Each structure stands twice: as C-alpha cells, then as structure tokens.
Fold:
Amino acid sequence: MKSRKRILKFAWALLAGAILLAVAAWPAGARAACQLGNGIEHVVYVEFDNVHFTRDNPNVPSDLEQMPHLLNFLTQNGTLDAGDHAVLISHTANDILTTQTGLYSDDDGIAVANSFGVFDPSGVGFPSSFFYWTDLVKDITPATMDSTFALTTPSGENVPAPWVPFTRAGCDVGAYSTANIVLERSPFDVAKVFGNPSSQLSESEPQRTNDFIGEAIHCTQGSALCSTANRGVTDTLPSEPDGYMGYQALFGAKYIYPVLGNPNDYNGNPLNSFPGFDPVPAQTLAMVEAMLKKGIPVVFAYIADAHDNQEGHSLSLESTFGPGEAPYVKQLKDYDTAFETFFANLKSEGIDQTNTLFVFTPDEGDHFVGATPANPGCDGVNTPCTYPTSPVPGVGELDINLNGLAAAAGDSTPFDIHFDDAPTVYVPGQPLPTDPSVRKLEQTMAGLTAENLHTGSIENLMVAMADPVEESMLHMVTQAIPHARRHLRTSAIPTSSSSRRRPLRAPLRSWAPASPGITATSSPRSRAPLSVSQVRESTISA
Structure:
C-alpha cells in the first residue's frame, strides 16, 4: 500500500452528510435563494498542495504546528482527521478531482496524473491532466485522435460537474486556482468558451492567460453576477445528467475582479490578474473572502505548498526547502498570518463556524526527500536547520533514467513512462501483459539497483510492481478511454523518480523547477547514476 505522512484532512464526507441540496430547476430569469441545510449558509473548500500535521523531523514543528491560527481553528471548531489516504497514484490533479467529486480515479478518467499516457498513432502521448471540465482527450493532445471526454465515467459520459448540485440549489459557486472547474489552457479554453474569433482570444500572451485562466464563477439561474452586462457566458455542460440549460458563468480576473469590487490580496496587491496556479494564502484567502462578501456562498480554492519557494528571491535563492530551514519557517509564518487575517475578516462579516462549513484538505501526501540536517539538533524555530551542499545537495528527490538503466541491464524492450516516483510503463504497440517482451521487462526492472546519494547505500530500485489486473483492483484503470491501458506500474525507492528519455510532456504543477543536478559516478552491473533535483515532494506507493 502507500507510504504516507499523516496529513490534514477535514473530511469531505462531512460535506456530503451535512448539506441538503434542492435540485429542482428554477424558471429562467428567476433567482433562487441558496438552499443549504442544517443551518449552513456558506461552504468554503480549500485544498493545499500538501501540508503536514505530523513532523518530518521530530525536532522541527510540523507545517500545521507552525500555522497555529489554522490548526487552532480546526481543533477548536471542527473535526481533524490526521489519517488521510489519497488516491493511487497520488498527485495534484487526480487528488483534487477525487475530493471535488467523491469518485475514485477510475470513475473520473484521470487514473494517472499530472499527465496520463495514451497510445496514439505515433506511439505514446501524455496529455496534461489539467484542462477544463468538458474537454476531450484530443482537445488536450490532438495527436491522440481520441474523442472521449478526458473526465469520463466508465460508460463514456462526461463526469457530472461538482458545481451543479449547488447551482441547481440556487447557489453561485466561485473557484480560484483549483483544477478543472476553471479555464486552464490558453488559447484553447479561451477559444472554446468565448469563441473564435473573439476579442478575448485576440489578446496576446501572457495577458490572455492573466485575464481568463484560473478563476471562475458558476452562477445559478437568474444570478446578476453572471449577467451579459458582466460578460457572463453560457455555462455549457453538454452531457450533464438531467440537462443543464439556462446557466451562466464568468471566467477570468478581467471580469471577476470588477464584479467583486476590485479586491486586493492581504499584502495590498490588486487581484486584477491571475497570479498562476501556485497562489499563496495571502492571495487565495483574500479572493475567497471577496467572493463570500459578494454573496457567493460556495467557494472552491487552492493554496500552493509551503515547502517550495513561493515568494521568490526575496525569500531565498533556493527553490525548495528542508524541514526547519529559515526560509521554510518564514514562509509558514506568512501563511499563518494570512489565515489569521482571513478568519478575523470573515468573523467581522458574520461568517464563521456557526454558519459556514469549512473544508481544508491536502492533495498528494508527500514526504521529505533529503539528508539529515548538518546541525542535527536544530529545531527550525530557535535554531534554523541547514543541509549539506556537497557532495550532492542535501534537499531534493533523486532522479534516474529508467530507460538507460534497463538498457544497461541488457533489456532492449522499448518503453515510455509517465514521469513519477512510481512510474507507469507503456510499451509501444500495446502488447498484452503476458507478452514475453513485457514479462522480460518486468523481470529486468525488478532486479535494478541504484545508489541512494543521500545515504550512500545501494538499494533495490523497485519496491513493488502492479500489472493491469492489480491496478484495476486499486481503482487505477480507466475503462472508457480504450487507448489508455498501461502495462506496468512500478514503485521506486522512497527517494527517487524515474525520468523519460525525452523532456516531460506535461509539466508537474506546483513542483519546484529542477536544478542542474549533480550526477554520481555509475558503478558496474545494472546500476545507473541518480541525479539530485530540487524537487522536495515525492509520493511513494507500493
């Protein structure tokens, strides 16, 4: 099973059990009052890109311990579930989708993230898992020629959209920087929503992305927020169960910012331009606050992880941090200050735990990858931790060329992989799992070893493997995308990721950029050099 840190989870199941939604359609032009049950007037759903409740280093306070305003709010007013288990294989895209919909990955089509492998006429394609809700696979990567909804049920229908129960109940729904319920890709999503030609599509980059990507308001019928005057457009869901007609939406900061009254973030910067899919709490929480104050009762939002450098060179020249490093502690302090402001501002407006369901949850479930601190007694708060810089950087995952390693072991079977620490293996031509070439490749990979540059020890590279039969039992096989069958899921040592021979086709959002890396000397046999990347998070499955 999966090796995880115990992490924060304010259970999504509570949301399903605590809210009673009226689903009757309302006449066009009439505005229904938002109907939520059990005294709930608002729903605030915030997903972190990883946040830890327990400690990565026993001497260093955990993420939540260093954000006391969030931790105390949860423990004093709600339920704290510190045993969250993310879907397999855990990544930003499929975790957010699962918590938005309540579906395992095999029921929403994104069984592998943050990109997924598809056999196409040229070999294997890797469409991004970040796209708009109604996109087809070929909309993301035309070479696949696959007309299946990327978000697909086992029967091939588009997965029901998570905002629909709320809008049918008379509630407007806001979204900020979260996955798949906002426009994600320019120019394609912009053309799809606004038309081609359109004034929105004619904008140049990066202005077009800043104006229209990453933010949305999905309105109930008759809501003035999404009026034509405010540049609302049809909220199109072509295969939504029971239909979805007469609903409008706003997309992008260009139209949402003025509707909300031109809000600033908590650092005083105007929120008139989308900052990208790595927002800090000062940005996300200020936007959530602005939406709630404008009468949008349901808001989905996302916050970037605190262990990567989200504040830039003003914080540190490092791209990622180990537990207790001074920039990490400083960034967590800034996160905590934003939560303090958020809760205080909402309470002054009469929005608090007495009438609002707050859901805070993490995606993934990463763990620290790196060496022990150079000053082992450090606690981060009083004594900053430092990490070795030589012979290899002491913070960061270890990357390896799996194709080269297999070839060095004498196996010439061609294959491609989804870049991951538990890489999915695709053999061109889609031979059956029982094919001798596939079986040989499994056996070759099972015998691979590599040096762990953080410890100096030689370790088996693979911890476990799963073929499609076992993957199906783990909810990792998508039935409705016929070209998405993989041959093998491997699980690597807890400090490594496997890299493809060519550049990653779909970027891993919220991961720090890789450093040039340091490559160790390769020894004989079927070992290959590992390189250290400045990527702190690593999610391991077995």
Q: What stands out?
A: The chain has two domains: 2-104+159-362, 398-541. The mean pLDDT is 83. DSSP finds 13 helices and 20 strands in the chain.
